[in-house]
Design a protein that fits this description.
Oligomer: single chain
Helix content: 55-70%
Number of helices: 17
Strand content: 5-15%
Low-confidence stretches: 1-12, 334-342
Largest sheet: 7 strands, mixed
Length: 342
Amino acid sequence: MGILITNTPRVYFSTISTGVKDPAFTQAKGKAIRKVAAFDLEREAIFDAFEKAGIWYLLLKGAVLKDLYPMIGMRQMADNDILCDASRTADVRAIMESHGFEADKAYGRGAHDSFFKPPVYNFEMHRTLFSANHDKKIRSYYENVKERLKCVDGKEFERRFSDEDFYVYLIAHEHKHYSGGGTGLRSLLDTYVYILNKGKTLDWNYISGEIGKLGITDFESKNRSLAMHLFCGDALSEDEQDMLDYVISSGTYGTVANRVNNGIAKKGDGIIGKVRYVLGRIFLPLDVVRSSFPLFIKYPVLLPFLPFYRAIRGVTTRRNVMKAELKTIARYRQKKDMKDKC
């Protein structure tokens, strides 16, 4: 029942052809359509303001993909992601606030700024596509992303990816989540829907070369194979089933346990990986500090106190996350030992 409640609009669309009718599904469908329409109207108003202010912008992820799904409302989003001119961050905030939005408390930190407006509006305005916490090769590839963008007809400052570059970004973004806390089934469905719509016209040689530059060729191949086999109803290989199990266990936005386990494995696995992971969590790289804790860069004398500040913040505002992370770290060696004994 939990799955049905969480995904009622999608369940509704999938049961139309069967003749199944349920008032709850019908209401959920109507709510999903209204939300999409409301987001579209709000986004256009913001884009008009960007055009008048001369701020270039790029629509990302779900807000683009939703139009490729068979029916409006099938592809839902918790927020709208938009890449904006990083040099105009203050102007972007002013525009958002003039439209009734309020900036998140974490404004100015990380790769994006979140803006909220009742009853359901949530916009993430990105300064960069990948933050300092993510894969260096992928971050470097997208560092000057504007050079890869194309103009949008009828708009002076709106930009877009080519179909090939959108797919490359889609896979890079999915890899970020998959190799971090994990990613949900929706990412596989996005891959399937995109290929279904664009696959025959894409330059796959170009895509293969760009994916190779990112160092995620193996992931792209497995992710695409699983998506196409899964939603076409084909039998899955053992590796595909393992990948699917991981995706399903990750929930929609990943889990703390996955993030910690993947983080330790990247550091060398076993006790060495655990020690390196813990040290990396205590003593953050300077580029991560610069992105997430700019005050400590502005006043370097405060840097020695950053680990204590983060520990206090973790206890007071992120206690459950901190407990889950410590628990996973403690159990990591136990799992390794048990596996070795089997």
